[in-house]
Amino acid sequence: MLKDQQVAAVLPAQDLNRARAFYSEKLGLDPDNPEAEDNLQYTCGGGTGFLVYQTPNAGTAKNTQIGWMVSDVAATVAELRDKGVVFEDYDFPGLKTENGIATMPDGSAAAWFLDSEGNILSINQTG
């Protein structure tokens, strides 16, 4: 029933204005509904998208909540760093980042960062 349908992520924000500024200034995204006061809706590639809504629960998840597929993780990390995005470093069994980027056994690469609300976001590249 749902396998052929598009999906969209939903992210929490404690402060929508702060989130709007982060997504615009750091990631180059502007909401589809700039006049809305209770949520921000963003459209990304291939008709995908996500919604940011206000809640005091923002930043409490300890897992990746949304990820973008890119053709070159290293180049995207460099571009986002130039805009002030700080990448996370991890050292877990089976996952270690170097300069903010993890290379997986299958040759894919990924990097993680936090948005202004403490949500864990990622960029991913297939091998």
Summarize the entry for a quick read:
The protein is built from two helices and nine strands. With 127 residues, the chain is an alpha+beta fold. The longest helix is centred in the N-terminal third of the chain and has 10 residues.
Keywords:
127 residues; alpha+beta; 2,3-Dihydroxybiphenyl 1,2-Dioxygenase, domain 1; six-stranded mixed sheet; 9 strands; 16% helix; Glyas_Fos-R_dOase_dom; Glyas_Bleomycin-R_OHBP_Dase
**Number of β-strand runs:** 9
Biggest β-sheet: strands ordered side by side in the sheet: 4-9-8-7-6-5
CATH superfamily: 2,3-Dihydroxybiphenyl 1,2-Dioxygenase, domain 1
Overall CATH class: Alpha Beta
Number of domain units: 1
Query: Secondary-structure element order, as H and E?
Result: EHEEEHEEEEE
Rg is 15 Å
Do you know the CATH architecture? Answer: Roll
Shape: globular
For the residues shown, what is the average pLDDT? 94
Strand content: 25-35%
Q: Largest sheet, if any?
A: 6 strands, mixed
Distance, first to last CA? 30 Å
The CATH topology annotation reads as 2,3-Dihydroxybiphenyl 1,2-Dioxygenase, domain 1
Percent helix, as a range, is: 10-25%
Pfam families: Glyoxalase
Protein name: VOC family protein
InterPro entries: Glyas_Bleomycin-R_OHBP_Dase (IPR029068), Glyas_Fos-R_dOase_dom (IPR004360)
Domain Glyoxalase/fosfomycin resistance/dioxygenase: 9-119
